[in-house]
Amino acid sequence: MDEFPDTLTYARITETAMGALRADEALRSWCLGCFGRAPQILNDVDPLSPPEERDCPVIAVMSVGGSAGQERGSFRRGLLVRCAVYDPETEEEADAEGRVVWRRHRGETRVTDMLEKYVYPCLRRAFNALNYPLSTEDEELEPSALGLFQVRAGISVIMDTSIGEDRPYL
Predict the structure, then answer these.
(1) Cβ neighbourhood burial of 25 (10 Å; 0-12, 13-18, 19+)
(2) What is the pTM of this model?
(3) Are 89 and 35 in contact (CB under 8 A)?
(4) pLDDT tens-digit profile of 44-95?
(5) Fewer CB atoms < 10 Å away: N or C end of the chain?
(6) pLDDT, tens digit, for every residue of 105-147?
(7) Where are the domains of the chain?
(8) What angle do CA 85, 91, 95 make, to 5 degrees?
């Protein structure tokens, strides 16, 4: 992928993220070890047809907006990342009477690991190499029924401005 032109376009952000994730050998190896297959890297997920067991692991990226203005010291472009895994394994702890008091879902751990240990570092390397720092805006774990776990993260790609710099889209 060549460097960004003067403007930080939404299409370039999505292309850079998808290219980096597809090329990341650590992510691929981890998914093969945990799930027996490489992750699907998609440009967005249809909300009316979310990932299913047979689709996982899935990573979807989509540019979602941003902010710019002459009063700001940087331009921000939003990137939404969704990760989904299927893993129905659970561990349970019971009290002295046999009631389950704690249940740990391995899928929840794995989807969190995918995002924090593999996706974030991959994207950070790709965008930092182009001199664009990243910032996580929000995360939300979305447990689904029967072992399907999803996590959504909003990420800002930050382009610092220089004094007197003029951008055509302001």
Answers:
(1) exposed
(2) 0.83
(3) no
(4) 877 777 788 899 999 999 988 877 665 666 778 889 999 999 998 888 888 9
(5) C
(6) 889 999 999 999 999 999 999 999 988 889 888 888 887 767 8
(7) 10-159
(8) 145
Q: E strands along the chain, which residues?
A: 40-43, 58-67, 74-86, 90-94, 100-105, 134-143, 148-160
Separation CA 139–CA 141 (nearest Å): 7
| Cα–Cα distance for residue pair 144/98, rounded to 1 Å | 26
Q: What pLDDT shows up at residue 92?
A: 83
- Alpha carbon dihedral 122, 126, 128, 131, in 10-degree steps, equals -170
**Which residue is associated with the tokens 């930050």?**
158
Largest CA distance in the chain: 70
Q: What backbone phi and psi angles, to 5 degrees, belong to 115?
A: -65, -55
Q: Nearest-CA neighbor of 19 among 127, 102, 114?
A: 127
Helix axes 120-128, 10-23, angle to 10 degrees: 120
Neighbour tally for 129: CB within 10 Å? 12
